[in-house]
Amino acid sequence: MNKYCQCFKPYATHPYDNQEYCTYKRKKQWLAFVLEAVVAFGAGHFYTENYERAIPKLIFWLIGWFLFITMRVISVKREKRDEVALIFAMLSCVMTIGMIVWYAVDVIMIGLNRYEDGNGINFKSWKSDDDY
After folding, report:
1. Residue 6 has pLDDT above 50, yes or no
2. Are residues 94 and 77 in contact, defined by beta-carbon separation less than 8 angstroms?
3. Pick from 125, 101, 99, 121: nearest CA to 111
4. What is the DSSP string of 105-117?
5. Among 17, 62, 95, 128, which residue carries the largest CB count within 10 Å?
6. Taking the model in full, what pTM does it have?
7. Rounded to whole angstroms, what are the CA distances from 67 to 14, 38, 64, 99, 103?
8. Exposed (0-12), middle (13-18) or buried (19+): which is 26, by Cβ within 10 Å?
């Protein structure tokens, strides 16, 4: 027998729980958007338990900042035309551009509600007609 229920918008049926219907509280799109836009570093993905996007993004940001700080330290201690400083500067620029692009894409995609949370459930939209 195929059971189906119409859940109120704040709730959904968890895809891996066959016993309980409409008990999974959906993540809020506006909160994921604000966390991703203001905090960055994958905070919106951590909130939505979407770890396959959050952890690589956090690691990418940490490596990018490490390269940036290392570049600054090397450029202060060495001559301006040093090859090592130039390589770190180029890597830092590439990582920074990558971070900006990844940040912008994630903010836009969360704002358009194109992502799902870690359990495959759509976010509770920030539209006013999505309350019931």
Report:
1. yes
2. no
3. 125
4. HHHHHHHTT--B-
5. 95
6. 0.78
7. 41, 22, 5, 12, 18
8. buried
Residue type, position 2, single letter: N
Collapsed DSSP state (helix, strand, coil) of residue 11: strand
- Distance between CA atoms of residues 129 and 6, nearest Å: 16
Half-sphere exposure in the Cβ direction for 116 (13 Å, CA): 8
How is residue 73 written in tokens?
A: 């330290």
Residue type, position 28, single letter = K
pLDDT mean over 120-131 = 74
Read off the tokens for 122.
Answer: 């759509």
CA distance 43 to 35: 5
First to last CA, the chain: 27
Helix spans in the chain (H): 29-34, 43-47, 51-77, 83-111
Better-predicted residue by pLDDT, 116 or 82: 116
CA distance 21 to 2: 12
